[in-house]
Amino acid sequence: MATTTTTPRGTQRSVRDLGFTIFNYAVFLLLALVCGYPFYYLIINSISANDVSALGDVRWWPVGLQFSNYRQAFSLQGLPQAALVSVGRTVLGTAATVLASAYLGFMFTQERMWKRALWYRLVVLTMYFNAGLIPVFLIMKVLGLTNNFLVYLLPFVVQPFFIILVKTYVESLPTSLEEAAEVDGASVFKIFWQIVLPNMTPILATIAIFSAVAQWNSFQDTLIYVTDQSLYTLQFLLYMYINQAASLAQAAQQAGGNIGAVASAATSQTATSIRTTVAVVVVAPILLIYPLFQRFFVKGIMLGAVKG
Q: Is 239 buried (19+), middle (13-18) or exposed (0-12) by CB count in 10 A?
């Protein structure tokens, strides 16, 4: 009589789970490589021999390793001042956006607020409609914000999307926290500052990431509202460097005292070397800061998500 063997269902399930896990890791590893390769490409081209990178022959690893591009990039005119402006607008702008979003998101959860629903709808409405480039420019000019550092801060303070995230997050907190504080005679501002704000860390960290990235990467406001070179940002300089890479390569060669006359083709600046080097300089700080907030990111988005 023939006998048959059966595989426990639990074993089959564990094999399928293992296969699914391996497949997931493989897909996400592939996506990570695809997303990370462009930045890796910038790095290896910025530290390779400039004549080789200019020909497009650097694809997988550095060729003719050298770091003179970074020394010359930091000597380009206006770069230190632009870095200071970018850091200043990122730090101050992010702080202002986070505080405003936290307070407004909290206030829109307070039923005692006069015409709360109306003000909330008006704020959300600005996500879908705006006056247009020319009217906004005229408003900025009338307010005296052109060629003014505040043009980097004030337009970013009230962000409807962030306010929605905070409002939804606050509504997920236990109402007993606020009720207990009210019984003890705490004012609305005291409840916000001492009770609610300390419990907003995940959503505020998420907002800080979004705001900092937007502030650091922004260059169009400089292009539109600023002509004073002392207020140029790193991103705007990158924009100009990319558009004027050929002339900047010649300027970089002259920065070290007629370096073009004695430097070899492998170390002299080229249009490609300026593009890749300055791109790395501009992007690297935000990549270094992001991991510090990453642990708050998923939790903040999930808890502050708009619930249907």
A: middle
- The CA distances from residue 127 to 92, 131, 227, in Å, are 23, 12, 28
Domain boundary (230, 261, 289) is at 230
Burial class from Cβ neighbours inside 10 Å (0-12, 13-18, 19+) for residue 163 reads buried
Q: Domain check: are 175 and 194 in the same one? A: yes
Domain count, the chain: 2
Q: Does residue 44 share a domain with residue 113?
A: no
Identity of the residue numbered 270:
T
What is the span of the domain harbouring residue 23? 10-75+244-303
Name the residue type at position 149.
Answer: F
Answering whether pTM is above 0.90, one says no
pLDDT tens for each residue of 279-288: 787 777 777 7
Last residue within a domain, chosen from 230, 257, 277 = 230
Q: Does the structure show a pLDDT above 80 at 160?
A: yes
- Residue 27, pLDDT > 50, answer yes
Q: How many CA atoms lie within 13 A of 246 on its CB side?
A: 0
Query: Of 31, 35, 24, which is closest to residue 287 (Cα–Cα)?
Result: 35
Within a domain: 236: no
Q: Distance between alpha carbon 197 and the CA centroid of its chain, in Å?
A: 23
